[in-house]
Amino acid sequence: MAEFFVLNTGARIPSVGLGTATGKAEPGVVGAAVYAAVKAGYRHIDCAPQYRNEKEIGLTLKKLFEDGVVKREDLFITSKLWSGNHAPEDVPEGIDTTLEDLQLEYLDLFLIHTPIRSKKGAIPTPENFLPVDIPATWGAMEKLYHSGKARAIGVSNFSCKRMEDLLAIASVPPAVNQVESHPGWQQMKLRELCKSKGVHISAYSPLGKPGSPGSMGKGFLSNPIVVSVAEKLQKTPAQVALRWGLQMGHSVLPKSVNETRMKENLSVFGWSIPEDLMAKFSEIPQVKTLRAEFVVHPQGIYKTVEDFWDALLPIFCLVTSPFPWPRLHLLAPVRLLQQASSGDLPQRIDHLQGLRESIR
User: Fold this and answer.
1) Closest CA relative to residue 11, chosen from 130, 142, 131, 154
2) 4-301 in CATH: which number?
3) Residue 51 catalytic?
């Protein structure tokens, strides 16, 4: 297996990247980890303003370039749009701040971090959430793509429903959906949808989260199936979990500040999990680690977790029409309406029938 996957833009995303959401790491720890990771062979660094370490990573990238360890074009750098910058006019500010902090001129991949919009400058808590307008935000993301500041654009934490809604209106389809995915939460339905639409899955928490709700001890890494496969292949459970992800067709973003573990996590090439052993992974109990209870509030936008993951993304459009009624209030993707704005009457009638079907 190659050490990269090809995105729908033609760009190559490394199969294994370094996650930098390390929580409350002491100053300098993440920067040192990024430097060690790149020297060890990592070429994808996954960042986000939410991780509160982009300035530190920016200093490290500058040092890597100055020391001649790598050139900018050797690295694939991902970052994400902060929830407070979802308004279309604030999206450019979001990427500009990240580029300044990372000391870069462009990002290889820029993602909408979550389908959550919060008041600008406010702490992203339920009382500060605003209704999302993904089509408007995505339109601004597309402008970044065309400008070259983001060489690929995508999303993160988007469910099947949200992906379908986005794909219906996108002029530039998302290149990546970054989600939790590992043997303990395989996301098969989402995986099949994204594969059919040419959207690459990139997995955060590919080793799970020990102690997460619904899991015991070390999480799925201690599952007998994972342990047995690891023993048979003379690999660690972590290596087996990462290799499973690669063979399922998605890139993986393990996070670590331990140099030994970083090297271990990168040692997933030159061997594979046989088909008969891959089939056993379907027997592993599935537990979603990131349930997002934190977004739920009785007076908030999301009353239940399900509201968050599978909320409809309607767009109400006021449309002038040649039909007997003067105006149509349609719940439909803008792009389809724009396509229907020209042509003769029969074509418009056919198109409106298609719009009605798309609402069901």
Assistant:
1) 154
2) 3.20.20.100
3) yes
Query: Of the residues 42, 51, 145, 204, which is catalytic?
Result: 51
Binding residues are: 113
Token readout for 351 is: 């198109």
Contact of 113 with 83, CB cutoff 8 Å: yes
> pLDDT digit of tens for each residue in the chain (360 aa)?
569 999 999 999 999 999 999 887 899 999 999 999 999 999 999 999 999 999 999 999 999 999 999 999 999 999 999 999 999 999 999 999 999 999 999 999 999 999 999 999 888 888 888 999 999 999 999 999 999 999 999 999 999 999 999 999 999 999 999 999 999 999 999 999 999 999 999 999 999 875 443 333 457 999 999 999 999 999 999 999 999 999 999 999 999 999 999 999 999 999 999 999 999 999 999 987 766 676 776 767 767 766 666 654 333 333 333 333 333 333 333 333 333 333 433 343 343 334 333 333
* Domain residue ranges of the chain, discontinuous segments joined by +: 4-301, 316-359
Give CA–CA dist 267/203, Å, rounded: 17
SS3 of the chain: the string is CCCEEECCCCCEEECECEECCCCCCCCCHHHHHHHHHHHHCCCEEECCHHHCCHHHHHHHHHHHHHCCCCCHHHCEEEEEECHHHCCHHHHHHHHHHHHHHHCCCCECEEEECCCCEECCCCCCCHHHEECCCHHHHHHHHHHHHHHCCECCEEEECCCHHHHHHHHHHCCCCCCEEEEECECCECCHHHHHHHHHHCCEEEEECCCCCCCCCCCCCCHHHHCHHHHHHHHHHCCCHHHHHHHHHHHCCCEEECCCCCHHHHHHHHCCCCCCCCHHHHHHHHHCCCCCCCCCHHHECCCCCECCHHHHHHCCCCCEEEEECCCCCCEEEEECCHHHHHHCCCCCHHHHHHHHHHHHHHHC
Taking Cα atoms as reference points, which of 257, 249, 226 lies closest to residue 239?
Answer: 226
Token pair, residue 212, equals 């997460």
As a whole number of angstroms, the distance between CA 262 and CA 256 comes to 6
Beta-bridged to residue 179, according to DSSP, are: 203
